[in-house]
Specification:
This protein has about 80 residues and is an all-alpha fold. The protein has helices spanning about 5-15, 20-35, 35-40, 45-55, 60-75. The longest helix is centred in the first third of the chain and has 15 residues, at about 20-35.
Length: about 80
């Protein structure tokens, strides 16, 4: 669900999260999703709208962010013995 500007303003003001927590989560969410090809082609404005929508609609939660970060770490770990001297 994509919120309009007015709906987003209302959702932010009515959110149980504080405004600063929303911004913090949004920044963390950007760090995670910018790794995915679908998000790389968005403009900054589109990305910010998408991220804020995700945060206020609980698509992006602290738990989901941590889960995706762990998954990304596992995917980028070098295999044992892959480094040769």
């Amino acid at each position: 669900m994509v919120l309009t500007g007015m709906q987003l303003e209302s959702a932010v003001s009515m959110s149980q999260l504080g405004r600063y927590e929303i911004v913090k989560l949004a920044l963390e969410w950007i760090e995670v999703i910018k790794q995915y090809e679908d998000y790389r082609k968005l403009t900054q404005t589109e990305l910010i709208d998408k991220v804020l929508n995700d945060v206020v609609t609980n698509v992006a939660t602290r738990e989901k962010i941590e889960e995706l970060r762990k998954k990304m770490r596992k995917e980028t770990k070098p295999e044992a013995g892959a480094i040769k001297e």
